[in-house]
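Narrative summary of target 7.
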Amino acid sequence: MKNMSLSRVMTFAVVSALAMLSLAAPSSAQQGAAPAVPSVAQQAPAASQPPAAPPQAAAPTAPSDAAAAPAEREGKLLKAAAAELRELSPWSMFKSADVLVKAVMIGLAFASLVTWTIFIAKMLELTVVQRKLRSALVKIADARSLAEAQFALGAKGSVLASFLAAAMREARLSAGISSDAGIKERAASSFAEIVRAEARRIRLGMGLLATIGATSPFVGLFGTVWGIMNSFIGISNAHTTNLAVVAPGIAEALLATALGLFAAIPAVVIYNVFSRAIGGYRALLADGSALVMRLVSRDCERVSSAHISRAAAE
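Modeled conformation, tokenized:
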């Protein structure tokens, strides 16, 4: 009986301990979770409240007409400049250039045309006259008298034929004059006139080449200065310093300088080439004059010898 009571007491104690533990566990769990509940409760109102609306940006004020007009004008100018840049060619730049710049360009193009025309004409002329003169010198190189040289040369129109004709005329006009020195002097004077006339004829157009070569760069520079001045006036009127607005006008102005150089450089080069060629032609004229003068001297000596022989025979 004593053992049974002891086991009952122990069983009751164990049950009581378990009951106490079961009661203490919920209370401690509530105490541990209690701090989290207020935080959730505190956050709930905040989450439930709608978010504050962001501050509205200040409505842009409508630009005034005075401020909108330059911006709109600049936009139009930029569009026009972009279109011109896409079509930027020498012909389009010429069409859109100022009237004075166009006149400068046309004048320079005409000067270039004149330069190349003179070049072609003068080249053909110098080639022909030099060939004729060399051929005539070869033909009369072995002639012993003026008559023989004139017969060998024929009636071809060359400057050497003019020398022979002048010598024959002077010999005819000086018939009966015993002084051979006077005939030679007068013949030399006639030859000098023929050489000067031929030099003047062959130099036709050289002065124009020199003028074009000397003045074309300055004429083109004048067109460039005028075009750039108009470009700066356009900058002032457009109230903008954007390069795209003024680039077409500057390109048109520089085209005038390019045309000036295009006309001047060939003119200077062609002038120098023809100066040397004309110098060579004048040297050939001097050779022809000397050759005909030797024939005059031979004829004069023959005539003197004939007079001496006739006088001795008498």
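Confidence is low (pLDDT under 50) at residues 24-63.
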